[in-house]
Amino acid sequence: MLDSYVEIDLDKIGANARAITQKYSDYKYFIAVLKGDGYGHGMEVANEMYKNGINYFAVSSLEEAQSFRKVNKDAPLLCLHPVHLSRIEEAKRLNLTIAVNELDYLKRLLDLNIDCNFKVHLQIDTGFNRLGFKDKNEVKTAVDMINGSNFVLEGIYQHFATAGIFDPHWDEQVRNFKELTSLIDLKKIPIVHMGSSVSMLTHPKQPFTTGVRMGIAIYGYNVAPDSLSNSPKDKLRKMRNNYFIKKYNISETYFDVKIDLQPAMKMKTRILQLKKVNKGEWFGYNASYTADEDIILAILPVGYNNGIGHANHNRQVVINGKKYPVVGEMCMNMTAVKVDSSVKIDDEVTLLGDSITVGMFGRSSGMGNAEALVNIGKNNPRFYVKDGKVVKEK
C-alpha cells in the first residue's frame, strides 16, 4: 500500500460529461479545459469525456498538449495561450488549434508562410485585461487577414472574470463582446465560445454562441450558488443581493441548478503510528498544539509536500466514516489527527472525498477549489478506477 495517493473515478468523469452535454444540448461544441494537468486529474480523464459527449479540449501550453496527445491522437485541441513562434512546427505535429491574441502576433505568424491549414481561434478581451483583442477594428483586420491566408478561422472566444450574479461585470463583458465583434459576421465563425463553469451554470446561453467551455464542473463540482434560506442573516443577504441586482440591472441568473455532477477525485493515506499523548504534552513545530486531556494521535505520512497546504484551519479527515480533527501545524511530510480508541493502524484515512468536500479541503489551507485539486493531483501518485477496479496507475 502506498503511503498516500489520489484516486480518480473515471465512471464519474464520464457521468459528468453526459450530465453537462445533455442539460446544455443547445450548444454544438463542448470544450473541456484540461489546464493544470486536467485540474490535477491527469490527461487520462480526457478519453472518458470524449466518449461521453465532450467534443473539444483546451490546454494552456505545448507541454500539456504533448501530454494530451499521448492519450488521445485525434480529438480537437485548442491551446489557450499563444504558441511561441519558434515552436509552431511542434504545434503542427500535435495537430493543435492556435489561439491568436493580438494583431502583431498574427502578422508574425502569417509571415512564417507555414505549409499548414492551421485552425485559429481569436481571443477577445472583454474586460478581464489578460490576453486578447480590445479594438473592434483590429478584430475586423485580423478576421480579414486570416480569411485571406491558408489558415482557417474556426473560433472566437472570451473569458468571464466573475459569476456576474450580484455584480455588473458579466453583463458588461457580454456587451463588450458584442461591440468588439460588431464589424464581423459571427455566423460565419463555426465556434463562438465563452467560459466558465459558473457562467455555464448560472446564466442562459447567449444566442450568438455555439460552444461553451467548462473547467471545474466537468470534474464534478456544481459551483452554482444555492438559494438563500429565511434565516435572519440570509434575509439580510437577500436584501443586499436584490439591491445590487436592481442597481446594476443584472440579467437573468440561476440558483440551485439541478445537475448531477459527482466529484471524481479522492485523496487517501494510511496511519504511521498511533501515539498516546498525556495532558499537557505538546505536538509538532512551534509546540503549536498542547493536549488539554489524555489523547491519542494518529500520525499520517502526508503534509504540505503532498499539496494539502501548510496552514491548518479546522481541517478534518474521515476514518471509518467518522470525522476527526487535524491538530497542530502541518509538517512537510507528516500530519497529526486526534482520534479515539476505535481507530486502528490499518484503517484507511480520507483527506478529500466522502464527507470532506473540496471546499472544506481548500478552506483548511486558504486555497480555492481549483487550486486545491491541482495541488494534490500533481503532488501524489494517481490511481484510475473504472467499474470499481484500478485500471491504471500514474
UniProtKB/TrEMBL annotation:
Keywords: Isomerase, Pyridoxal phosphate
One Pfam family hit: Ala_racemase_N
CDD domains in alphabetical order: PLPDE_III_AR (cd00430)
Cofactor(s) the protein requires to work: pyridoxal 5'-phosphate
Domain Alanine racemase C-terminal: 264-385
Alphabetical list of InterPro entries matching this protein: Ala_racemase, Ala_racemase/Decarboxylase_C, Ala_racemase_C, Ala_racemase_N, Ala_racemase_pyridoxalP-BS, PLP-binding_barrel
SUPFAM superfamilies in the record: Alanine racemase C-terminal domain-like (SSF50621), PLP-binding barrel (SSF51419)
PANTHER family per record: ALANINE RACEMASE (PTHR30511), ALANINE RACEMASE, CATABOLIC-RELATED (PTHR30511:SF0)
Name used for this protein in its record: Alanine racemase
